[in-house]
Design a protein that fits this description.
Blueprint: E1 5-6, E2 12-13, H1 24-35, E3 39-45, E4 49-56, E5 60-66, H2 68-75, H3 91-121, H4 128-136, H5 143-154
Antiparallel strand pairs: 1-2, 3-4, 4-5
Helix pairs in contact: 2-3, 3-4, 4-5
């Protein structure tokens, strides 16, 4: 586990290299119960995308990906073979990817609203249009940096990555 970085209003960010113990929603719920504050975690996937989960007493669990185009790869079931006999994406893989990408894109406005609700429960002042823009971006430099952009848009005091 990394060293906590302090932000405004008592908030901290901590890098955990190998995930949280247990099932993440329950771990977040326990963290919220113990601290009395909302909790948020992101799983960075090869610096391409991230899966964000947050819990607050007022809003419950919210989950979202950012960078839908890259996130779709992580939503395709593992038992679907990527390549066909020509080395190109197979029909089944492409269909699963298309479905995942469409679902993630279609859900993005609702997920952005949920992220803003979480942020408001945390006492932050989110910028809803900016949150949606950041979540919806298909191309980014690095997921780690992009996550801190999301935190800034959600209103984390002095969020810097």
């Amino acid at each position: 586990m990394g060293v906590p970085r302090a932000h405004g209003d008592g908030w901290q960010t901590v890098v955990v290299r190998h995930g949280l113990p247990g099932h993440t929603p329950q771990t977040l719920r326990t963290l919220v119960e113990r601290t009395g504050r909302p909790a948020l975690v992101v799983y960075i996937c090869d610096s391409d995308t991230g899966f964000v989960q947050g819990w607050s007493d007022g809003g419950g669990l919210f989950e979202t990906w950012f960078t839908p185009e890259l996130a779709a790869d992580y939503e395709v079931p593992n038992d679907i073979c990527y390549e066909d006999e020509t080395g190109m994406p197979g029909t089944a893989y492409q269909a699963a990817w298309d479905a995942a990408h469409s679902r993630i894109r279609d859900e993005m406005p609702q997920r952005a609203r949920e992220a803003c609700t979480w942020a408001e429960a945390a006492g932050w002042r989110p910028e809803p249009a900016k949150v949606l823009e950041i979540l919806s971006a298909d191309r980014i430099e690095s997921a780690e940096h992009h996550f801190f952009e999301l935190l800034r848009a959600m209103g984390l005091p002095t969020a810097d990555g």
